[in-house]
Amino acid sequence: MVVPESIVYGLVLLSALAHAAWNAVVKHSAEGFLQLAMIRSVGLLIGILLATQLPPPEPEAIGFLLGGAIFQYIYFFLLTRSYRVLDYGTAYPLARGVTPLLVALAALLFLDESLQPLQLTGVLLVSCGILALLLKELQVSSPGILLSLGTGIAITGYTTLGAAGVRTVANPLSFVAWLEILSGAGILLAVLVTQPMRGIAFARTNLLRGSASGVLASGGFAVALWATSVMPVAAVAATRETSILFASVISVYVLNERFSARRLIAALIIFTGVGALAFA
């Protein structure tokens, strides 16, 4: 069944909302790493359930799975460190803001994937809107900037490898399932080796929040990765980075941060870019 592009972009926007929500949970948890481990444990369980119902990925996908998992480990490490240094409204836009153009460049170099003029315009508009959001954030400390930019590079790595991987398998969900298994098993093992008792205690007291966040994380990532199998990866990545807008809304209405005219203008630019992508 062919899914209309407008529906695909709508689903990616929902995945962006899910991403902003579970990242806010990690940031504002007393134990960010343990919260992340719990979220990825849910992904591990979902991956196992899917893997038992689907054929294994083709051998050509193994390298992409391993590479994607490694970049996700780097992403998890840098993400939790950046949240220790910076607040949510700063760390999240910095990390996600560098991704659209980096993914577009990586797709051009490694996937031989170019964009149509209107799609390129959409990516550039989204990137400009994100830059407008980041102008104030560039005043933060250098270590925080480096951690967040490193997080963005890691996102580019697993996004590009994931997009290449889902295109080598007959069923994209099979690739998603095994990537969830690899990434979830790695971070769960790290907790069991370094702080097993604290991890178990945290899971007991945060079961509902961790489970809900895990479903959001896994579901949102699965949608985004599936979308790269039917759409240009740069266009999908640019659309998913509208999660920065959702993060801004969360910052204002949940965390009581001030909403400025700069954010409003940036929001309008980003949504114009998403509209260009949807109608390209």
SSE blueprint:
Layout lengths: L4 H23 L4 H22 L8 H24 L2 H10 L1 H12 L6 H18 L7 H25 L5 H23 L1 H10 L1 H21 L5 H8 L2 H11 L7 H19 L1
Helix pairs in contact: 1-2, 1-10, 1-12, 2-8, 2-9, 2-10, 3-4, 3-7, 3-8, 4-6, 4-7, 4-12, 5-7, 5-11, 6-11, 6-13, 8-10
User: How many structural units, i.e. domains?
Assistant: 1
User: How large is the share of residues in beta strands?
Assistant: under 5%
Number of strands: 0
Helical coverage, percent range: over 70%
Mean pLDDT: 83
The ordered string of helix (H) and strand (E) elements is HHHHHHHHHHHHH
What spatial form do the alpha-carbon principal axes imply? globular
Query: Taking Cα atoms only, what radius of gyration do you get, to the nearest Å?
Result: 18 Å
Distinct helical segment count: 13
User: Uncertain regions: pLDDT < 50 for 5+ in a row?
Assistant: none
Quickly give the structural class. Answer: mainly alpha
Question: What is this structure, in a nutshell?
Answer:
The chain has 280 residues and is mainly α. It has helices at 5-27, 32-53, 62-85, 88-97, 99-110, 117-134, 142-166, 172-194, 196-205, 207-227, 233-240, 243-253, 261-279. Helix content is 81%, strand content 0%.
Protein described:
This protein has helices spanning 5-27, 32-53, 62-85, 88-97, 99-110, 117-134, 142-166, 172-194, 196-205, 207-227, 233-240, 243-253, 261-279. The model has no long low-confidence stretch (mean pLDDT 83). Helix 4 crosses helix 7 (142-166). The chain is mainly alpha-helical and 280 residues long. It has one domain (5-279). This is EamA-like transporter family protein. Keywords: Cell inner membrane, Cell membrane, Lipid A biosynthesis, Lipid biosynthesis, Lipid metabolism, Lipopolysaccharide biosynthesis, Membrane, Transmembrane, Transmembrane helix, Transport.
